[in-house]
Amino acid sequence: MRKLVLILLFLWWVVLISPKIVWADELEQVTKELEALKKDLRDKEKDHQRLSQKLEEIKRRVINLEVQIEKKEFETKKSEQALFFQRKLLDQRAASVYKKINQQDDFLIEVFFNEDFYYSLTNFFYQKRVVNQDKEMIVKIVLYIKNLQEIKKKLMQERNQLAKIKREINDQTMFLTHQISQTKIRIAQLTAKQQELIAKKFASIYIPRSASISYSCQPDYDHRIGSIREAGFTPKFGFFTFGVPNRVGMNQWGAYGRAKAGQNEEEILRSYYNFDSLETIDTNLKIKVDGYGDYLLEDYLKRIYEVPNSWAIDGFSALKAQAIAARSYVVAFTENGQRSICPTEYCQVFRPEPKGGPWEQAVNETAGKVMKKDDRVIKAWYSSTHGGYIFSSAEIGWNSTSWTKNARDTVREITSFADLFLFAFDRESPIFYCNWGQRAQYNNTAWLKSEEVADIVNVLLLAKTEPSVSRYLYQVDAGGEVWNEEKVKEELRKRGISPFTNINQVSVKADFNLGRTTAISLSGDGGLVTFDGKEFRDWFNARAPANIQIRGPLYNVEIK
Question: How many domains does the chain have?
Fold first, then answer.
């Protein structure tokens, strides 16, 4: 019984104390940035599963204890049934003892006056021995009753204690479930707020989708010639993105690089799309252009301004590949002319006057040709610069499609950033490697100061440590109740964390097969910290000053 009580005490400690400690230590670490929140939620759900398993183990042990108690209760009931007969025996023995005690005085006189004295004396002592045995039996029965009552009392106490433990287990389970539910609610709320702020920042920068459009990003560091745009302070931290956000389908600058390497239009197209065949369709199809009226398919194509005519000098097959992609896109987009198409780069860049020159030649030489997959013309998405990698539509949040693919857009295998500069097919693009954004007071550059990078690090540390304050950690000049650099440092100190005042070293790790930055490590006066690549990128975009942004999954950091 003592062992059972010790087990119960242990279980009581486990249920009431241990889960709360684990919860406080392991389940409060939830960030409020989109992917980090999801990642931390997964971690939290894993902890929930681990704690639930622990509680289930406790439940099983409680069930075993209940079984033992029920067994003891069953044995007690059998003892009570036996006690019924023992009570009858007790009554009989008590009556016999009472009777014999009353008879002993008369019996003693009879002993002395009986003719057979020896026989009478023997009979006297026999009767006395019987009385004593009855007394002993009475005592045993009384003790048995008392012990049985104590057993029943302890069993009741144990059952009440187990009932309390079961209530605590249920409370803990509901507590964990509630916490997970609340975390998901916070994710939804804060994600919406974050995306709203980031969307406003993104909208402030024009990012061209077509290779023929002028570029808004002037890289502060040109890796090809080593030139640096000065900002008026040192050291300068630049966060450089490879390519532009849309990396689905044909990479226009990559197609140009492939054409220069000797690939024909079909080889180029098969590098970017999964399609069954190139087929010629009826060119009498009419295309309705918003604001411009109807055009026959080939006349429409001759008015597309997506790539420079100058590429024809050493990469004419890139123009032919573009003509087939543009034709496939408009046929699929308009559902064979049943709906209209916009004239901007959000669809395809269209102008009312024919482009002429090599482009018209490329259209004529590919007349009617489209890419088909499963006997349907594919919607052949494309964009200016992919940064050395091709993504499927599902990977950037669009619907999954059979004709888009994931691949490296490079001459050979890539193992470093240096390799990308040398072997990516789109490496000649002006926006292949760019740090997006600018500030007039710093020569219209996107360089950041050491203390500004430290602030972004501090914000991320605080968001991971205390998720509930994340609503105060967005861009300071975004408006609303946002904590500035000093307030963030103060909040970190309150939580026993040394904030950073400056950053002096940054290193980046990337998966060069997938084209994604996987981790970033930053060191300074606050020590060394490492973050998930996307986690850092998204908090950077939420906190970085002005409209400075990281615009893709693969980025690097330059310190000058």
Answer: 3
